[in-house]
Amino acid sequence: MKFDLDKLNKVFDNRIRVGIMSGLMVNESLSFNDLKEYLSLTDGNLASHLKNLEESQYITVTKGFIGRKTNTTYSATEEGKMAFKQHLTYLENLIKELK
């Protein structure tokens, strides 16, 4: 198998976006605060990566309230799940070939 950079999804080149998608693949949704704590990020850093994933249509954003406090949750879209799985599958196959 020859390594083909074009088969890797550029959106997932960043470890933070990989972390976000990993969390969303195993959870139906996660709040902003859950993701921030899980990944040990600042608000601004997390927000910029979430925006990138949202613009790519890989996640959806739901804004609501818990009591009087705002609560923003994120979920992976079907397109996002498929793209992430394809990215991981290509990496797995590449690793298997290199053994």
From TrEMBL:
A single GO BP term for this record reads: regulation of DNA-templated transcription
Listed CDD domains: HTH_ARSR
Q: What start-end ranges are recorded for coiled-coil regions in this protein?
A: none
Which protein are we looking at? Answer: Helix-turn-helix domain-containing protein
SUPFAM superfamilies referenced in this protein's UniProt entry, alphabetically: Winged helix' DNA-binding domain
Alphabetized PANTHER family for the sequence? BSL7504 PROTEIN (PTHR37318:SF1)
Species: Myroides albus
Q: Domain named Winged helix DNA-binding: which ranges?
A: 16-95
- Source domain of life is Bacteria
